[in-house]
Amino acid sequence: MSVEDGNASRAAAQVRAIVPLLAYQRADVESDARFRWNCWARQTGKSFTKSLRRILRGMRRGRTQVFLSAGERQSRELILKVRQHCQALKIANDYYDDRFFKELSVKQLEIVLPGGVRVIGLPANPQTARGFTGDVFLDEFAMHAFDRDIWGAMFPTILRGDGELDVASTPKGKSNVFYQLRDNDLFEQSTVDIHDAIAQGLGAEAESLRGAMADDLLFRQEFLCEFVDEATAFLTHDQITACADPSLIPCDSVEALSHERGELFMGVDIGRVRDLTVMWVFVRDGTVFRTVGLFELAAAPFRVQQALLHEVLSQCPVRRCCIDGGGLGMQLAEQAVERFGGHRVEAVTFTSALKSQMAGALRVAVEGRCVRIPSDDRIRNDWHSLERTVTASGHFRLSAPRREGNHADRFWAAALALYAADGFVGSVESMAARPLRYARQGTW
Q: Structural domains in the chain?
């Protein structure tokens, strides 16, 4: 028996005596499957179990273990669990946290185990996923941005030496690689929802969790392991479709929009390389906001964006315009305010609270059928891409993955346009009066 096999055998024996494992955790740790797909509910021990499994498999096989997590914080937490397992099992190890991918400004965490087995922790990125040979663990894979690119970059890592691959996550809709792997027969699969975990000894009370969460869709996703697309969507497909008007063709030229009558309100979301610049224009028809203008610019120089923005504001009856004034949009917003006045143009700096307020207002308008949008799959998918997720601390967060060249840019442009209309409850009125008369004559 080799030194590595001896260490692995002793560690496996110690696991049974030292590390408390529930039945579903033990089954995962002891599986010999080359490919494992785990869909487990939140707080059921995914990272705890998988880090232990990969330590034991790595020592037994003498192979480097590469862990890819959703972010640097999650990567650090995962490596911390590896160190805790090593401490409990009395496995000698050396820990390094001073290694960087300089071009990406991300940190590589590394633990060296007996026999030279390395455990490498990295935040998920298509570039960090390249250049390694060994076994791979994709932690919370459904939460990875650019998951398809990561999948393509990472998969060659396991080709040499019969490499192993573990994929584990809680569901996050159906528009990701993790969901697609559910139907891959080459993966040994394990699904554990909160009821399964409790039945096998997890100390929790499902109905208390459901009541405290107070959101049935999110509970179904986070704890019942359901791939419910609408569980994360801020706006469902049905809600968006109900506001779509197939006959609506918004203007995409300044000349056409200049002939529009009525109160116009415009929102501008600024992009440059990865994101679109979108200018969304609503007209108020009573209590309904109808989309009459939609301008989209991809990778356009700022001078081109400025020229179009100023042309719209100069030639079209835009009552008020709100522009994303943070980051890339700061200069364009400042120049527009300077030229057209703060009473007509407002630079909006996004904060979490303000984004929540703006998104909530648009959602209320959608639910009340108070907006009309074109029947366009690009708009429908863009609006649907905004996701509402719950953080580890229990707070709600709005986010949108960058897919198909957008980052919910059309949604935020429309939200800014509706925000521009906030407080304007009617049209401008005028009243005729006789010339002023003064009580006395003389020099004033």
A: 3-227 (3.40.50.300), 237-421 (3.30.420.240)
